[in-house]
Design brief:
CATH class of the domain at 38-126 in chain A: Alpha Beta
CATH architecture of the largest domain in chain B: 3-Layer(aba) Sandwich
Number of helices of chain A: 4
Largest interface: A-B, 58 and 78 residues
Radius of gyration of chain B: 28 Å
Structural class of chain B: alpha/beta
CATH superfamily of the largest domain in chain B: NADH-ubiquinone oxidoreductase 51kDa subunit
Distance between the termini of chain A: 21 Å
Order of helices and strands of chain A: HEHHEEEHEE
Number of strands of chain B: 20
Largest sheet of chain A: 5 strands, mixed
Distance between the termini of chain B: 62 Å
Largest sheet of chain B: 5 strands, mixed
CATH topology of the domain at 38-126 in chain A: Glutaredoxin
Radius of gyration of chain A: 16 Å
CATH architecture of the domain at 38-126 in chain A: 3-Layer(aba) Sandwich
CATH topology of the largest domain in chain B: Rossmann fold
Structural class of chain A: alpha+beta
Shape of chain A: globular
Shape of chain B: flat
Number of strands of chain A: 6
Strand content of chain A: 15-25%
CATH class of the largest domain in chain B: Alpha Beta
Oligomer: heterodimer
Chain lengths: ~140, ~600
């Protein structure tokens, strides 16, 4: 993710910045590049943190490293599934994102060895039940 | 890497489980195995799909076929007809009740359009601490458009045409508020974001600030441009440390990128934002009290008029808006007023974020278009009542609102309908109650809160609410009488009419609403000294049935206050004076010998 710290001087500057940011995000998610990365988003709002999301995130990073999986782990806001926190969204390149709930260390290991490495889904995925207004 | 080409997802939510979804799962696995497909087809259980009225639900990936009301016997057809022969099982497909069409995949099911995230559009998608991710999702484009391609009047017109109303609970038309502030002539104006969110059980604003703080920064700048304010203030409760931290990061990043500060987007508009902290006073969510708190004075409401738009912070015109109202602004400018006003009802446009809590299976944050019914929210999205109990009421609007009952379940949610039904939208807290909740105790709970939070300035609230509370305490402890009920109602009406600010004017609502809808419970409390839901301590007693009790001593051992006595193999007894009615003994008893009276 590029970290341009220059001021955005005009609306055109902003539009160009948006395009280049979107392109680099797309490449990471959708290209046929064999080194494409798995994306993991951990819901890190107060309810998630109260349920242990910070530990989940650190354990993910540690476990992914150990298993030599190329992945990007980031935090995000509330996904709305407060009854199933901690929740994570896993996007394996070429596949739809999937949300897993009630994550603990055991589940993290399962997600990595079963879903990320083998494409085997595990029980208790949370079906997304909303549409969001998205970018133009 | 992936060896499976097909997945069958079976809903494991409570509703579907009750309709044998586990057996469906087992049968599917068995048929898959019989056909030798276990290496390419995986069958798994998911969490609740939320489509409980049409359960059990089975979804197939990758073609997204959505089967409803599936039975264990259908497993054969699903595998043989659909997976092997490639023919969808039409009798299991969902039929759109309005058009009678068969719906082939989940993306076209109306249910999934029931939740539409507008204010929460970025929550869960972006890292809130990274401005680049916000920009990639059209961040700050609305601000740029407003500053360089539109006049303040044009922006205000767009907001007015959208029909956006204040999401803090007041429901005042936002565009109109901005226009009023714009028209006042002054050398300094302020725009304020009300992030106090004092309602117990409400966390909509917190989620927006924690998940998408930049949307607030952008919207406040747009507000400043429209109203002529160069300074923005966010009044945020100190009990939200994560939201405060993320907001600070967002403001710093926005400054770095030139979205705050001087000459934004190369125009002569300059804007800056400061954060001010609340200190835990519910009344400071009221705009005049909020403003006084920011000025360093005690948070007390003052008479309106003059309205803050004319005379607010430090005597300057001040435009106060709620977090969720702000969250809608950038997307209205990007997608247009016409788009926004096509969602919702005639007088309440757009969507509303609700914090669904209480006795539902799927508690959480939801955002639905105005006009969605309570039934769809509670039984659809919420997954129905926990533990299969019976729905009793849903409280909306927090301490200012009232309760809605079974007869209101098909009411389309909007500002006006809720008020007509005796409640109000409020900021979005929605607490669901079941047969085990006592409505009198609930009214008392809300009065506990408002009595504590009253600023004390006006007599109706300071003295009146205290008296209401005392009467409710009497009633819930069995010392009330029938005259108290009339006194309660009369006093509540007087307080509503005479209190100085919104806190006092709405605090009697829970009392009036529960009396209107559950008068029989009040009568039981005063006439029979009985609590029908077995919640009120002094009116509830736990007894051990000597005919069923085997004297196993389990209850005596679990009782935290040692209220149960008896020797082995002899029926035990509970001492009512010591018993705290926690219910642990009932849970432990294997012989069903303990009952509540």
């Amino acid at each position: 993710m590029c970290t341009m710290m220059n001021k955005v001087k005009t609306l055109d500057d902003l539009r160009k910045m948006r395009e280049s940011l979107r392109t680099s995000l797309d490449l990471r998610e959708k290209s046929n590049n064999p080194e494409q990365m798995v994306q993991i988003k951990v819901a890190m709002a107060t309810c998630g943190i109260a349920a242990g999301a910070k530990e989940v995130m650190s354990y993910f990073i540690e476990a992914l490293d150990r298993e030599h999986v190329d992945a990007l782990v980031t935090q995000t806001g509330c996904m709305g599934y407060c009854y199933a926190e901690p929740t994570v969204e896993i996007t394996v390149p070429g596949k739809e994102p999937i949300v897993f709930g009630r994550i603990n260390k055991t589940k993290v290991d399962e997600i990595i060895t079963s879903y990320i490495k083998e494409g085997i889904l595990i029980d208790d995925i949370i079906p997304v039940n909303y549409n969001s207004v998205g970018p133009e | 890497m992936a060896q499976y080409s097909n997945y069958i997802l079976v809903c494991g939510g409570t509703g579907c489980r009750a309709s044998q979804s586990e057996l469906i799962l087992q049968n599917l696995k068995e048929v898959v195995r019989q056909n030798g497909l276990q290496e390419s087809v995986q069958v798994i259980r998911t969490g609740c799909f939320g489509f409980c009225e049409k359960g059990p639900v089975v979804k197939l990936i990758p073609d997204n076929t959505f089967y409803v009301q599936v039975t264990p016997e259908d497993a054969d057809d699903i595998v043989n007809e659909h997976l092997i022969k490639g023919r969808k099982v039409e009798r299991l497909l969902y039929v759109n009740p309005e058009t009678n069409e068969l719906i082939l995949d989940s993306k076209h099911i109306n249910f999934y359009k029931k939740q539409l995230r507008i204010a929460l559009r970025n929550c869960g998608f972006i890292n809130p601490e990274n401005i680049d991710e916000y920009i990639a999702r059209d961040g700050y484009i609305a601000l740029g458009k407003a500053l360089t391609e539109m006049t303040p009047e044009e922006v205000i017109k767009e907001i007015m045409d959208s029909g956006l109303r204040g999401r803090g609970g007041g429901g005042f038309p936002t565009g109109l508020k901005w226009q009023i502030t714009r028209k006042v002539q002054a050398s300094q104006k302020y725009v304020v974001c009300n992030a106090d969110e004092g309602d117990p059980g409400a966390f909509m604003d917190r989620s927006i600030l924690e998940g998408d703080p930049h949307s607030i920064v952008e919207a406040m700048a747009i507000n400043g441009y429209c109203t002529g304010a160069s300074k923005g203030l966010v009044y945020i409760r100190a009990e939200y440390p994560l939201a405060v931290e993320r907001l600070k990061i967002a403001i710093d990043q926005a400054k770095d990128y030139g979205f705050l500060g001087d000459n934004i987007f190369g125009t002569d508009f300059s804007f800056d934002i400061q954060i001010r902290y609340g200190a835990g006073a519910f009344v400071c969510g009221e705009e005049t009290a909020l403003i006084h708190s920011m000025e360093g004075l005690r948070g007390e409401a003052t008479v309106k008029p003059p309205f803050p738009s004319e005379n607010g912070y430090k005597g300057c015109p001040t435009n106060v808006n709620n977090v969720e109202t702000y969250a809608n602004i950038p997307v209205i400018l990007l997608k247009g007023a016409k788009w926004f006003s096509s969602i919702g009802t005639e007088k309440s446009k757009g969507t509303k974020v609700f914090a669904l809590a209480g006795k539902v299976n799927n508690v959480g944050l939801i955002e639905v278009p105005m006009g969605t019914t309570l039934r769809e929210v509670i039984f659809g999205i919420g997954g129905g009542i926990k533990d299969g109990k019976k729905f009793k009421a849903v409280q909306t609007g927090g301490p200012s609102g009232g309760c809605l009952t079974e007869k209101h379940l098909d009411l389309p949610i909007d500002y006006d309908n809720l008020i007509t039904a005796g409640s109000m939208m409020g900021s979005g807290g929605m607490i669901v109650m079941d047969e085990d909740d006592c409505m009198v105790a609930m009214a008392k709970f809300y009065l506990d809160f408002t009595v504590e939070e009253s600023c004390g300035k006006c007599a109706p609230c300071r003295i009146g609410n205290k008296r209401l509370h005392e009467m409710l305490q009497k009633i819930t402890s069995g010392r009330g009488n029938i005259e108290d009920l009339d006194k309660l109602r009369n006093l509540a009406m007087v307080i509503k009419d005479t209190a100085l600010c919104g806190l006092g004017q709405t605090s009697p609502n829970p009392v009036l609403s529960t009396m209107d809808n559950f008068y029989d419970e009040y009568l039981a409390h005063v006439d029979e000294q009985r609590c029908p839901s077995h919640q009120c301590r002094e009116l509830t007693q736990y007894f051990i049935n000597p005919e069923k009790c085997k004297g196993c001593t389990m209850c005596a051992r679990i009782c935290p206050v040692h209220a149960i006595t008896g020797s082995r193999k002899v029926p035990h007894t509970i001492d009512s004076e010591i018993c705290i009615r926690c219910g642990s003994c009932i849970e432990k008893c294997k012989f069903d010998a303990i009952y509540v009276h």
